[in-house]
Design brief:
The complex is a heterodimer of chains A (384) and B (231). Helix content of chain A is 53%, strand content 17%. Chain A is α+β, with helices and mostly antiparallel strands and 384 residues long. In chain A, the strands form two sheets. In chain A, strands 1, 3, 4, 5, 6, 7, 8, 9, 11 and 12 form a ten-stranded mixed sheet that branches. The two termini of chain A are 30 Å apart. In chain B, 31% of the residues lie in helices and 29% in strands. Chain B has a single domain, classed as P-loop containing nucleotide triphosphate hydrolases (Rossmann fold, 3-Layer(aba) Sandwich). In chain B, helix 4 packs across helix 5. With 231 residues, chain B is an alpha/beta fold. In chain B, helix 6 links the parallel strand 7 and strand 8. The chains are: A alpha+beta (384), B alpha/beta (231). At the A-B interface, helix 1, helix 11 and helix 14 of A face helix 1 and helix 2 of B.
Amino acid sequence: MKFLPLIVANLGRKKSRTLFTALSILVAFLLYGYLAAVGLAFQLGISLTGNDRLVLRHKVSLVQLLPESYQARLEKMPGVVAVAHATFFGGVYKDPQNFFSQLAVEPERFLALYPEYVLPPEQRAAWLRNRVGAVAGRELADKYGWKVGDRIPLQASIWQPKDGTGTWELELVGIYDGAEAGTDTSQFLFRYDFFDENRVEANGLVGWYVLRVDDAERAPAIARQVDEAFANSSYDDRATTEKAFVQAVVRQVGDVGKILTGILGSVFFTILLVAVNTMIQSVRERANEIAVLKTLGFLNGQVLALVLAESSFLAAAGGLAGLGLAWLLIGQGDPTGGALPRFVLEGKAVLLGCLYIALLGLCAGLLPALWAIRLRISEALRRA
Amino acid sequence: MSGRDVLIRARDVGKTFRRGGEEIEVLRGLSLEIGSGDFLALMGPSGSGKSTFLNLLGGLDKPTAGAIEVGGHRIDRMADRELARWRARHVGFVFQFYNLLPVLTAERNVELPLLLTGLSGAGRKKQVATALSLVGLADRARHYPRQLSGGQEQRVGIARAIATDPTFLLCDEPTGDLDRKSADEILDLLHELNTRQGKTIVMVTHDPQAAARANRVLHLDKGALVAEAAA
């Protein structure tokens, strides 16, 4: 602590240089915070999915459909305890920017497969009674200010209704909550029977099937069994665990983990170069002062510690401010307007960020610190 | 020597620098003794080896030949780390261009060598105040070097040198960058430290008036002692 005034004074030597370097570090850690939250959102979608659930979908893509008749065959398979199907709707609510997931499902079967979607009994009953009924997750309902009884018009983009209006009028009969903290409550679900009867084309075809198996350990074996059962079908399908299915969906937008690592790696490497450059300049231009400190009896280890402390302070000032700003901005909400299931800066990411800050500080100061301890006193004083 | 206990003893000290492929002999066979409480002035033309010798006495560099003993310790045999600790405890340095840290106030500059001691914050503060009072700058404690005149900066430099109450002071042309009036004030201060506090002082100077304040004057030429005059 007694060396603190010296460290702080040295940082204030060239205020604008210190400020701009700290700002660069701030931006890097702001970006880190944001990307960590985005990465978590993608990861969360995968980790929240069940290993005891299998997804059967068309081998080519989710857009390719499967026959509704698979349902009965799937239900009879050994090891399969429940089956439901879902079909992606992709309608527009008021504005194309209002993106959220809309699925046509069979209420009872779907809710049985997803017990983490908690719907009050009376709302569940209302949904079973009402063919134009729909339910929304709490996050989605809050976002658009929906309440039970509201009419939700969805403009068709894939599935045109038979009435020719181009719009599907649905009624919100329930709002579900998540059983766990990370449960996705941004879904919009409506009845498949109403959807199938009123769509212009592809009747009797569904998007994918979700199967619950009796033993998660046997999920891969059952998936193979399902594949074999439908091997001679005219529909080219494939069964995978739900986790692998969600991972595959995420991969359709690219390998998010690799992209984020690549971006962060580049940003941190650039920032490291900026910080090293600042520290080298700062230390070299006061070679004389370092020689004076050594003349007074400062040990090489103390000089090394002073330079490293200075670079660590610089990294901490910029880095912590960046993380703090990221935390504040992320707290304002999902910038995609609801496309991400959850958008938060986790404590683990903050801790990792702090570790990166410490590493940045040490790496930035190491070269100039080594230069400073190698400095020969008599030569540096003579040059002054 | 002036009949006092020997504090510093140099025997056949030589110093050779290698520059490119060439060896330059800066000091050769230099022997002398400096008594405790002496005020010694080292004079000589530029390149005569005065500052090099001062660096050797202060443990900033090591001789290539001979031995240097200070207070019974062979400093030429000390490892770098040991030498740094020895400097912190025993030597006060005063430089021609003051060498104050521009980002620190006068009191923070004076405190620097005290940071290496085990003194508490309050203890350091007291020592700093005493040192600044001794050089007559108690009222300039919070001033930065840029806010001080050359003479005042050198006073702060001297306060820094005496803050830890070192065994001896090494002054490398302490008045070389000052006008006559300021130079005289600095010399008065050094003289007072020598006579009243009993500080041993070795001062390198080109200035005969400065040398006149010392009680011994040695002349160096081409790396060897050529004459000694009692002041």
